[in-house]
Structure formats: C-alpha cells, structure tokens
Design a protein that fits this description.
Blueprint lengths: L12 E4 L22 H6 L8 H10 L4 E9 L3 H10 L7 E4 L7 H13 L4 E6 L2 H9 L4 E3 L7 H10 L3
Parallel strand pairs: 1-2, 1-4, 2-3, 4-5
Helix pairs in contact: 4-5
C-alpha cells in the first residue's frame, strides 16, 4: 500500500476506470477498427454504453466503506455525457478525473500520475481498471489493484490507450 503522509478522517478512496470496467464499449469499438479511427463517433457513442454488471456491483459495494472516484482516459470534452451516464446507472457520485483534451500520453502514465497525487493525502484502498499496463504500473507503485476482466478485451482499444493516448 502506498504510504499516506497524514492520516485523514475522510474515508479511503476506491478508484474506478470507466471504459471496459464500468461501461461496455463493445458497441462502439467499430469506430476504432477502421482507418482512420473516428474518435468523435467513438466518444459520442459512449452515452449509449451498457453498464458492466460486475463493475457496477463492485463500485456500489465499495461505496459502503470508501469514497468512489472515477479515473478515465476519456477526454474532458466528454464530461457532461459521462456524468449523465454515471447517474443513469445509479453509480455513486464522485469526482471524475479526465484527460485534458490535448493530452496524448499513454493511459498508464496519466493514471499513475493522478493516483500518486491522490495518495498524497488520502488512502487509496483500490484501483479497478481493465488496462493491464495501467494495472501493472499501479501495482509496481504499491497500489492495490483489481483487474476488470469481465469485458471482452479489444486490441483496438488497447492500442488507443497505449499508442495514441486517446482513452
């Protein structure tokens, strides 16, 4: 576990990824499987993502002891749809950490940077994410990780997360 500088009276954090963890992206992956990739259509379709039952149940269960926050590679321009989607699924309210619209760094770099920032003054009880590279780097940094393996893996999405820094 990552050391916390000062013990807070606030509950620990449970950090959840969205795409592939809480939201099923299968219906919109087709936009990434063509050339050129259609990022606008990919993100516009996120509002219609079905929830992933396993991830939703884990988030709801975590909310009993933790403050739930969301850490996504989605760009900031998707915030309104993301907030509405979370509410429509009955997920806990929580801060949403999103990628700047112009940030193209790999998800494992951006997410680890935010995790470390959060860990400065809060205990992070768990990170739940489907990206193996994010999970590996977070574990190496001392975070407890639950790998979201309940959705079908997508090579196109994996390439987008790592190679193009888009989600």
């Amino acid at each position: 576990m990552v050391a916390v500088k000062e013990q807070s009276s606030r509950p620990p954090l449970a950090v959840f990824d969205l795409d592939g963890t809480l939201a099923d992206t299968a219906h919109r992956r087709r936009f990434l499987e063509r050339s050129p990739r259609d990022w606008d259509a990919f993100f516009a379709a996120a509002a219609q993502d079905p929830p992933l039952a396993e991830g939703v149940a884990l988030a709801l269960g975590s909310a009993r002891e933790c403050e739930v926050v969301y850490l996504t590679g989605r760009p900031e321009r998707c915030r309104r749809d993301t907030v509405a989607w979370l509410a429509a699924q009955g997920l806990p309210e929580g801060r949403i950490w999103m990628r700047r619209n112009d940030d193209r760094r790999p998800a494992r770099r951006t997410k680890l940077e935010i995790l470390r920032r959060l860990a400065r003054d809060r205990e992070i009880r768990v990170l739940v994410d489907d990206d193996e590279l994010v999970c590996e780097d977070a574990e190496r940094a001392g975070f407890r990780v639950v790998r979201a393996r309940w959705a079908d893996a997508s090579p196109a999405l994996r390439d987008a997360q790592e190679g193009e820094g888009r989600t």
